[in-house]
Design a protein that fits this description.
Strand content: 15-25%
Shape: globular
CATH class of the largest domain: Alpha Beta
Number of domains: 2
Number of strands: 20
Radius of gyration: 24 Å
CATH superfamily of the largest domain: DD-peptidase/beta-lactamase superfamily
Number of helices: 14
Largest sheet: 8 strands, antiparallel, barrel
CATH architecture of the largest domain: 3-Layer(aba) Sandwich
CATH topology of the largest domain: Beta-lactamase
Helix content: 25-40%
C-alpha cells in the first residue's frame, strides 16, 4: 500500500517540479539523469548498468530527495522527489527544509570570512583574546580561527550525535565545558602537533562562541544578516530545531529501515558545525556565490583574496570550511553532511561554473546521493564522479560451496551465498541489499555497488575459514557458522 502511494507521489511530483518553464532540451537532460543513476564500479567490457531514481529510492528506503544542479554559473534546475515523511506522504518541494549537517561548516566559514572582510575579527589572532564566557585551556601555541576552520587546531575528534527532543539539551557553554546534559568531553587542545589535520565539529563550537563574544550577536542572527539575506537564501537558518511556523515544511529524518527518527529529527545545539537547515536551491546559490567571488566576478560580500583563501589547502586537502580533494583536473570545493536521518552533498567546481547539491532524508541517503552525483557528472561531462573500472574473469563456481556462510568482519556480520552460478554478499558493510560478487580471480571478488574487494583465504579446507574485506582499509573476517545458505 505504502509503496504504491509513494510511487504515485514520487512520479507525480517529479513531473510537476520539472515541467514548468523548462525547454525540451533541459527536460530531456533531466530525464536522462533521473534514469541514468550509476554504480561506483563498472565492469570493463560489460554494458553500463543504469538505474532509475524512483527504483533506487524505494530499494534503499530513501523517502525524499532534493537536487539542485549548477551549470554555466547559475542554478539550472531543481528537482524534488518523494515524500517529506512516510507517515503523511507530504511531498518534497523546492522549499522543503532539510538538516544539512556538516555542510553547516563551509557556510560557517563564509560567515567568518564576512566578519574578517568587515574588520570584525582576525583569522590569525588567538581566539582567547575575544572569548569572555569561556576560555580554551592554554595550549603550546595560540588557537586561531584559521586553525579551527581548517581542523588544524588539535581539537577533539568527537562526533556530534544530536539530542532527542524529549531529553535535556545543553547550552553552548555546557558543550564547551563537557557538562551534563552534554554528551561530549570538555573541549581542549588534544594534540600538541596543532597543525595536524584532525576533523573536529567541537572546534567549530569554539569558533561559534568566539564569534558570539567578538560581535555581541548570536551566531544564527549573524549568519542571517551576513550571508542568508544578501544571497537571498530565504529558506536557510541555523537552528537547534525548526520553529513551529516552519516545522510543517521540514523533511523528517528516517532510519535505515525507512521509519521516522524519534521526534522527527534530532536537535543540535552546536549550530556552527551541524545546525543548518536549508534547501538544495539555497545551498546552490551559496556555491555560486563562492564561485563568483573566487573568480573575481563578484566582490560585494568577500574579496577574491578571501574567497581564494577558503579554497586553498591549509593541511592536506582541507581549506577553510571546504574539502578540496577530488580526482579530476579542474579544482573543486565540496562538503558532505551526515546527521541522524539525513545525508547531504555540496560539490562544485571553482572555474567552470558547474556543481550539484543533493539532500536526502534517510540514513541510507549517501549511497543514493553518490549514484545521483555520478549520473549528473556523466550528463554534464565532469572530470569527477566517474565509476571506477575493474576487470572480471569467469568465476570458478566449484569453489562457491567453500565460500558460503556467515563471517564476522570487525563488529558486524556478512553472509556469503550462491545461487544459479552467482555468488552474493549480504550485510551492513555493503548496504541494505544483497549484492552480487564479481570474480576477479578464483579467490578474489568485487562488487559494483561500492568500492569493495573481497579475498577468500585458501586453506585447503572444505570450508574457507577466513577472508579479507577491503572498503578503504583491510578488515579480516572469520567464519562463524558452517551453514551454507543459498539465495532465494
Amino acid at each position: 500500500m505504502f509503496r504504491h502511494a509513494f510511487t504515485l507521489i514520487l512520479m507525480g511530483w517529479a513531473f510537476i517540479a520539472h515541467a514548468q518553464g523548462q525547454s525540451a532540451e533541459l527536460k530531456a537532460r533531466i530525464e536522462k539523469i533521473e534514469n541514468g543513476l550509476l554504480e561506483p564500479v563498472a565492469v570493463r567490457g560489460a554494458p553500463t548498468r543504469k538505474m532509475r531514481l524512483i527504483d533506487r529510492m524505494q530499494a534503499l528506503h530513501v523517502p525524499g530527495v532534493s537536487i539542485a544542479v549548477i551549470n554555466a554559473g547559475m542554478v539550472e534546475w531543481v528537482g524534488s522527489y518523494g515524500v517529506a515523511d512516510v507517515k503523511t506522504g507530504r511531498p518534497i518541494t523546492s522549499n522543503t527544509f532539510f538538516q544539512v549537517a556538516s555542510i553547516s561548516k563551509p557556510v560557517t566559514a563564509f560567515v567568518t570570512m564576512r566578519l574578517v572582510a568587515g574588520g570584525k575579527i582576525d583569522l590569525d589572532e588567538d581566539v582567547n583574546r575575544r572569548l569572555r564566557q569561556w576560555h580554551l585551556p592554554v595550549a603550546q601555541q595560540a588557537t586561531t580561527a584559521r586553525a579551527l576552520l581548517s581542523h588544524t587546531a588539535g581539537m577533539p575528534e568527537f562526533g556530534l550525535l544530536g539530542y532527542r527532543n524529549d531529553e535535556p539539551k545543553p547550552t553552548l557553554l555546557q558543550v564547551l565545558e563537557g557538562l551534563v546534559p552534554a554528551t561530549n568531553p570538555p573541549v581542549a587542545v588534544k594534540n600538541s602537533l596543532t597543525d595536524r589535520y584532525a576533523y573536529s565539529g567541537l572546534g567549530y563550537v569554539v569558533l561559534q562562541q568566539y564569534i558570539n563574544d567578538a560581535t555581541d550577536l548570536p551566531f544564527d542572527v549573524l549568519a542571517s544578516e551576513t550571508v542568508f539575506k544578501p544571497l537571498r537564501m530565504h529558506d536557510s537558518l541555523y537552528a537547534q530545531s525548526l520553529p513551529p511556523t516552519l516545522a510543517s515544511r521540514a523533511a523528517f529524518g528516517h532510519e535505515v529501515d525507512g521509519t521516522i527518527v524519534a521526534g522527527n529529527w534530532r536537535e543540535y545545539p552546536e549550530l556552527a558545525p551541524a545546525g543548518l537547515w536549508s534547501t538544495a536551491y539555497d545551498l546552490a546559490l551559496f556555491a555560486v556565490a563562492i564561485q563568483r567571488a573566487a573568480s573575481g566576478q563578484d566582490s560585494r560580500l568577500i574579496t577574491q583574496q578571501h574567497a581564494r583563501s577558503m579554497l586553498t589547502p591549509v593541511r592536506g586537502h582541507y581549506g577553510l570550511g571546504f574539502e578540496l580533494d577530488h580526482t579530476g583536473e579542474e579544482a573543486v570545493f565540496h562538503h558532505s553532511g551526515s546527521n541522524a536521518g539525513y545525508k547531504s552533498l555540496l560539490f562544485a567546481y571553482e572555474r567552470t561554473g558547474q556543481g550539484v547539491v543533493i539532500l536526502a532524508n534517510s540514513d541510507n541517503g549517501w549511497i543514493l546521493i553518490e549514484e545521483i552525483a555520478r549520473s549528473v557528472a556523466a550528463e554534464y561531462a565532469w572530470g569527477d564522479y566517474h565509476p571506477m573500472e575493474r576487470v572480471s574473469v569467469k568465476p570458478n563456481t566449484s569453489l562457491f560451496s567453500q565460500f558460503s556462510g556467515d563471517f564476522a568482519v570487525s563488529n558486524t556480520k556478512v553472509r556469503i551465498s550462491h545461487d544459479n552460478g552467482h555468488l552474493f554478499i549480504t550485510g551492513p558493510p555493503v548496504g541494505p541489499l544483497s549484492v552480487e560478487l564479481i570474480s576477479a580471480g578464483d579467490y578474489d571478488y568485487f562488487i559494483r555497488e561500492k568500492d569493495v574487494t573481497l579475498h577468500f583465504d585458501s586453506n585447503g579446507s572444505d570450508k574457507i575459514q577466513t577472508l579479507t574485506f577491503v572498503d578503504g582499509r583491510p578488515r579480516k573476517g572469520t567464519r562463524i557458522t558452517q551453514t551454507a545458505p543459498h539465495a532465494d
